[in-house]
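Mods, move this if it's the wrong board.
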Amino acid sequence: MGPNDTVQKRAWSLVADVGGTNARFALVDMANGEICQITYFSVAEHQVFADVIDLFLAQIASLGGWAERPQEACLAVASPVGRADEMQHLQFTNSAWSIDTADLSQRLGDVPFYVINDFAAIGYAISALERTDYRQFGGHQALTDQPAAVLGPGTGLGVCTVVPTQPSPTVLAGEGGHADFAPVDAQEIAVLNCLMERFGRVSYERLLSGAGMLAAYQALAQLASRSPEHLRPEDIYAAALAGVDTLAIRTVQLFCRVLGSFAGNMALTVGAQGGVYIAGGIATKILPILATSDFRQRFESKGRLRAYLTDIPVYVVTAPDIGLRGAAQFLGTRGQDHQTRTTYADQ
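Not the wrong board. Structure tokens:
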């Protein structure tokens, strides 16, 4: 190599999955589409989101071999968003972080910069799931020409709808997790009354989230005239899985029933004969209880529409970092759509 020769650095895209608790960053090798250098940041440990971007860029720069800046970027965020490619200021629903997309684009060198809802990202990811990426709960074969519903309890309760269109699926983000909670049995009515005293209005997210599991546990403790022993949702489902706390077991079973009801509501609302996909951080952690709970019975228990729901499969997504995969899939989809538009324009 001569003195004037330079090493060609590898081009990459930046993808991120930013929730209310953790932010996951990664780069996508533009030569082969591989997602690598996955890095986790705690939301609580960083006051400003832009600082986390700078930390990740510094980490990539320290590796050597990669270009200084990405070619494009996609952030999947736990917040309502506008058009993916418009400049906007976003305030996260379940954290103090905010995003100024114009500022971030400038920090990255004015590259194409997209922001999508975090569950929309999961919607983009489901088209590329492998059989080992999920566990099926009932139903039969999904119809590939029909819509699919995606939902999931984590820090909040996210939802989206995936419509099979060409050349790539259309993903419709929504905020259905904030719809009014509808109790089905006497225990849920009693829990609702407790939560109404505490919060006023009660949404599904008030039960189907980490904070929601804790709130339901506290309500059941109140109804049983017991003092709550656990202060974190992870302690509740750990105790339930270990079978050492009756109140924790009842809480997780309640959680599974309400999740089944909500998933069934989603399936009816969007006509999800393409399947219902459950992601988020909680469902995979409580799989043993979910599998033996009344989840599927509640999913199908919709009166005259039971037969409609019986055939619809429910998939619990177990693959890690699915949001990052979805953000990368979104960037690939943008390329496909651009190529298709160019082809049509040339005809």
